[in-house]
Design brief:
Shape: elongated
Largest sheet: none
Radius of gyration: 21 Å
Helix content: over 70%
Strand content: under 5%
Distance between the termini: 37 Å
Number of domains: 1
Number of helices: 9
Order of helices and strands: HHHHHHHHH
């Protein structure tokens, strides 16, 4: 029983530990970008982060199954509930035979919505932001140092879905703030996006774990 509690605690704190580990590595790579390849380092972290989100969704799915299976007859019935008892067969899910005809139909829909959809959207947001930054770099190359495009994609993924919709405007806010600070203190007219993106990712995460963003995201129906 103690082992289960320990594993449960580790599972609960894994997202926090993973965020800080990757964020520190990303920030360190940015600070040491003159000595290491920021782009190469960021790409490795992107793939590691993608694997983490998918692995965490898989672990969550397995744990949900065993939780329902071992929590009494009320939750056990969710593991034997066909898809047609939940949604009409005319829906997208109802037209997939391996789901529509499975006793685990409800469980698969629940797991998809609760664990997998967010993970895939998070990864998708990261690669979407990567394309946006690549396009922006072609238009205004002075906004970027080498590797900052990949760094931005990584930080967008760290923010996760749906916090990405808040991370994006935070980036532009910090671009303005950092630009003004550099102009006043260093007499530099331009700033690249590395530091603003790091600040935006950090602020997004802090507001997220303190549930400050929850009312806003609920209003946006995300």
């Amino acid at each position: 029983m103690m082992i289960i509690e320990i594993l449960g605690a580790l599972y609960k704190w894994l997202p926090t530990a993973f965020f800080w580990m990757v964020f520190v590595l990303a920030a360190g790579a940015y600070l040491w970008r003159n000595k290491i390849s920021l782009g190469r380092w960021s790409k490795r972290l992107i793939w590691a982060t993608s694997f983490y989100y998918l692995a965490y969704a898989a672990i969550s799915t397995v744990l949900q199954y065993f939780t329902w299976e071992n929590s009494g007859t009320f939750t056990q019935k969710f593991l034997g509930m066909p898809i047609n008892s939940v949604v009409q067969n005319t829906t997208f899910w109802g037209r997939l035979p391996f789901i529509a005809n499975s006793k685990l139909g409800y469980f698969m829909i629940y797991s998809w919505g609760r664990f997998w959809l967010g993970a895939l959207l998070t990864i998708g947001c990261g690669f979407l932001f990567l394309l946006i930054l690549k396009s922006l770099k072609k238009y205004r190359d002075r906004f970027f140092e080498d590797g900052e495009v990949e760094l931005g994609a990584l930080l967008a993924m760290l923010g996760s879905w749906p916090q990405f919709v808040v991370f994006l405007p935070f980036v532009f806010v910090f671009v303005v703030i950092v630009s003004i600070a550099r102009l006043i203190f260093f007499k530099e007219a331009y700033t690249t996006l590395g530091i603003p993106m790091l600040f935006a990712a950090l602020l997004t995460y802090i507001l997220s774990i303190n549930n400050i963003l929850k009312p806003l995201l609920e209003k946006l129906a995300l």
